[in-house]
Structure formats: C-alpha cells, structure tokens
Design goal:
It is a single chain. The chain is mainly beta. Among the domains are: 127 residues, Jelly Rolls, CATH 2.60.120; 135 residues, Sandwich (Jelly Rolls), CATH 2.60.120. Helices cover 3% and strands 27% of the residues. The strands form 9 sheets. Strands 1-9-6-3-8-2 form a 6-stranded mixed β-sheet. Strands 18-26-20-23 form a 4-stranded antiparallel β-sheet. Strands 5-4-7 form a 3-stranded antiparallel β-sheet, with no helix packed on it. A hairpin with a 6-residue loop joins strand 12 and strand 13. The N and C termini lie far apart (117 Å). The N terminus is likely disordered.
Length: 465
Amino acid sequence: MRMLRMMALGVLAAVPAFGQEIPPISFEQLTIATTSVGMATATVNPSGKPAAQYCSGLLETADVRARIDGTDPTSTVGQSIPTGAIVTLRGADAIRQFRAIRTGGTSGTLPLTCYGSQADSGPALEIQLTVTGVSTTGTGAEVHATSPQLATPEIQDTSADHQYVFAVSELAADRTVTLPLLTGNDTFTFASFAQTLANKTLTTPEINDTSADHQYVFAVSELAADRTVTLPLLAAGDTFTFNDFAATLTNKTLTSPVVTTPQINDTSSDHQYVFAASELAADRIVTLPLLAAGDTLVFDAFAATLTNKTLGAGTVVSVSPTGDGVLQWAEVSLTNVNIKALRATPITLVAAPAAGKVLEFVSAVLLLDYGTNVLSETADNLAVRYTNTTGAIASETIEMTGFIDQAADMVTTARAKADVIVTAAGSIAQALVLHNTGDGEFADNAAANTLMRVKVSYRVWTSAF
C-alpha cells in the first residue's frame, strides 16, 4: 500500500519511534541521478545481521520519484518526493524493491538508516513533508499561520493526473512577489503561453526577430503630454517606414518635405539620379512652370535642343549650335593618370557622331595646370587623330618640349593638318582622340597633381556614304 502523508513537523526524526532504543543495522547514502537506483544488497541484507525491516532518511538537494513495486520509476512516472521530505520504508519487500530517479537536472541525495525490526505500522512507502518553525490552524486542508518555506511546490490539475510544478532560479537575495489588489477574477500571464493582454503599460518593449537571437527594442522620447499613434486602416499587409532604413515609398503625398540628398531610380532601378545641393546664404524657392504637357529638364552639361526659349538680358558665355558644318566646341579635362597614359590610352576629345557623319578637326587649346613638380618627356609629342592609337592624324604635331615639362601653368594651341587624307571607314562615325605619338609615356611629377584641359573646336559633316 502506498500513501502520501503531508505533515508539518517541528523537528525531524531519524529513528523510528520505538518504545525502547533499537540500534541500526546498516546505513547507505544514495545518490539519485538520471538512472533508477536502489539500495545495495549489503544495506538490505547486512552480513551477520537480520534483513532490514525499516529504513528512514531525509531527501536532500533535489526532487525525485520512487517506486516499490519492482518497476523502475522515470522522471515523470512514480511517487513524487520533494526535497526536504522524510522518506520511510517499511517491510523487507518494500526496502528491497525501492527504486528512485531524479526529476530534474540536479541529483538528489537520500541518506537512509535501516533497522532490523519495526514497532509502528504504516504504509510501505511513507513521505513526510517537513516545514520547520511553523504552526497550523483550521481543519480539512492544511492552513499555515505564518509564511512557510516550500521546496518545489506542486499544484494538481483539474483531473489530478498532472501537476503544476513550481521551479525557481538562484537568487542573490530574498525577493518579494506582490500580488495586485484584484477587483475581479483574473489569470496569471506566462512568458510563452499565448494570451491577450489588457490594461498593460509596456516599458521598453522588445520583439524577437525571425530566429529569436536578436530583438527589436522600442525606445521612446520624453513627451510633454500623451500622444496618440494611429495605425492606418490597411487593406493588405504592409511594412513600417523608418528614418534611416532604405525603402521605396508608394502612394505617399509629401507636404512641404525637407529632403536631404534625394534619389530617383532609373528605368531599370539599378542606378539612381542623386540630387546634390550647394550651400545657400538664404532659402531659395524653385518654381516649376505650369506645363501644358510632359517635358524634360535641361541640364548644364547635357546636350539638348532648346525650343520655345527667350534669352533675357545678361551675358551669354557660349552658344554651340548644331547642324551640318556648324562650328562647335567641346572641353575635356585630363587627370594626372590620363596624361601619363596618353600613349597607350588616348583620351576622347569629341565623341563619335552618328552613322554617316564625319568630324572635321578645326583647332584646339591645351591648358596645363601645373602642380608641385614637373612632368618630363624625351621625344614625346601629341596629336589629334581619329578613333585610336592607329587612326589617321587630323592635326599638326603638338610640340611638348617647353610645354609639358615646365614648372608653371602653360598654354599651347593645335591646328588642323593641311591635308587629312583618310578612308571613309577610318573617319565616318569615328571619334577624335588626343594621343601621345612619342616613344614613351610622360613621367615624373611625383606629386601626381599636374592636370590638363583641352578645348577643341570642330565641325560635323554629313557624308552621304
């Protein structure tokens, strides 16, 4: 017969309450771990002594489960014995068949003192729950008059076949858990159990990411008064927009926005038009005209044909009209790297015209922007030619001695070759390039800060080929 007897004891007894003193016959301190364990044969049947009929001890360290029917208990099946309980075994069969196993991650310790006879009666396995220094009052269910200290208490579920087992963490000091003054029945809230919370104020809430290894932590600013954040009536799933996170906005109307370096995707969304601003001395209003139809912005350097424009008073710096035989000009800037690689990599002065068009080189002005030390050359000169390093030369030789190797800002000019005889294939739809025709690249200028600009004038002709 098994029975769970719950008692509040003022003291713990380690020996049976016999009328006369009966000496123990054996002792064993069981370590109850993850494998079911019982008492050793030497404890149950000590040599030269009668078989043990009564054993008793106080469970220490951790909760365990036990059985005395010859079947091994498991961590979830068997008589539950909490830490601090007095375990009493009566009868040789119960003592011999006693088996125990721990229920959690810590092993239990059960020191058992055994006797060769017993004078009292009781269940074969008796568990006495001990509570030191308390008194009880009332009838029926146990009532504690003062605050008891419970080791791993359990509460039965509605059908009494499972228990709510209360586990604790290791504290650095006593902690008081205060229950609120409820105005009606209510339910505890748990960390993982799905529940709908009402009347709660969240301080620095956190939301797990998809893998639950990082959190979105919500931080707030100090308000002067309550503020209501209203979520829109969404017609479908959507995403919050954040201050720094790159996002594409749709269906938005901006009212007097202040935008820093805005960007607009191109047609394939793989590049952007990035808008940069200059430093203003005061606010400036840019007014868009009242367009009667779709139109295109005009840019400073991008070639465009203007229509319906009237030039007001002011200074016209340059006008470069287009058309067959019209004199046009272009300007190209060369870096130090470009200058030192002109023999291997000519620089395009005028881009290749459309099919059937041929470029006529007219003249050029070369401006050397001197840095901190000079460039050098041996037998190196420049020329304007078609296409690449092997194209027909369209200019006279541009002498570099006295120009490229000077420690000052310098200017020189280039003029067209008297007779440029070239095949149609070598000139039609071909670019004009600046090439180093010498025996080596320009060198020196260790600071790499001497630059060059080339202003070239040219005409475009229709070949009819």
